[in-house]
Amino acid sequence: MARVELRGVTKRFGHTVAVDNISLTIEDGEFLVLVGPSGCGKSTLLRLIAGLEDVTEGEIYIDDRPVNDVPPKDRDVAMVFQNYALYPHMTVYDNMAFGLRMRKFPRDEIDRRVRQAAETLGLTHLLKRRPAQLSGGQRQRVALGRAIVRDPKVFLMDEPLSNLDAQLRVQMRTELARLHQRLGTTTIYVTHDQVEAMTLGDRIVVMRDGKLQQVATPHQLYAEPANVFVATFIGSPPMNLVRGTLRRDGEDIWFETDEAIRCPIRGALAEYAAAHLDGQAGRPVILGVRPEHVITDPERVRDLPEGRLEATVEVVEPLGAETYLYVSAGPHNLTVRTDPRMQVRAGDRLPLALDGGHLHLFDAETEQAIR
Ligand code: ATP
Q: 16 in ligand 1 pocket by Cβ < 6 Å?
């Protein structure tokens, strides 16, 4: 069992608060991904768990054991960095065996573990080579192998794929997922690649300025972002945001802007929106709509006279499986995902509709989700 618990963890470097009062439990066997913009504190949080930095305030537990004062080598965690940090003068075998030799493991046990890890990672035929004789992907696999042979309670990975080219990244991503399925070791993984985060994470932690913004499954993050920051950070191209107001019209709740956009809010969100109105008309909000929830299909648009808007196509971006349209509607710019078979050109006028059942609302001031 290997559960990692953070209780009110803060890390300051002088006046910089790199990690700000974070409480979080990473469950046994979980693959947890930390994402966020550069400087948000992801690496620092990982280094605190590894013991490479001292906690300023709060406690870290590994399997209910407080580890604040436990040195890194006794925490039973293995860290994999983006720059591999292999010993250039040693063979692949020796690089993988090194940590176990330092820990005085018996020779046969070392041999067994290294060969098993090499088998798992497809490195068996490379065991006699030196790092300089390997490709980037192979080096990264050796770095992983060095962590695996230790059979640690927790893997801590800091952007392990970021030095690889795009194609290799995708391949290694799948290998990592497979490895985690096989070993089931608790893993905490830092990245700023949201595709990696979405595909690898059982849960994702979104950080900003040292603080947790949301901790959720990939699907929850996408479908129910807690605030404007998460809404625009997860999803590519990002969610469209439009500032406007909520109004009640009989039973219905409407979102409207001064010009161009007026649409009804449907489903469960309508109830929350109504509660949020609180008797006031014209409550300022931010409407969020993902590019795939702007309806372009002419028949569906015709059936939805209420949420319609007239747009002008500015740019057409065909990507093969889908096409993105960058459109303007009055003063608002929207990104729209559409069927690649749709015949549309820059300059075209295009009636669109917003899918009332898939809208997001955020408080205009706090930017927190209304739901
Ligand atoms: P990136 O994605 O760019 O690696 P990150 O989210 O991992 O960023 P951290 O490296 O954890 O961010 O840094 C968080 C904050 O702490 C930053 O403002 C950084 O400048 C600061 N910081 C990190 N390490 C130190 C240090 N040793 N001394 C002083 N400030 C530091």
A: yes
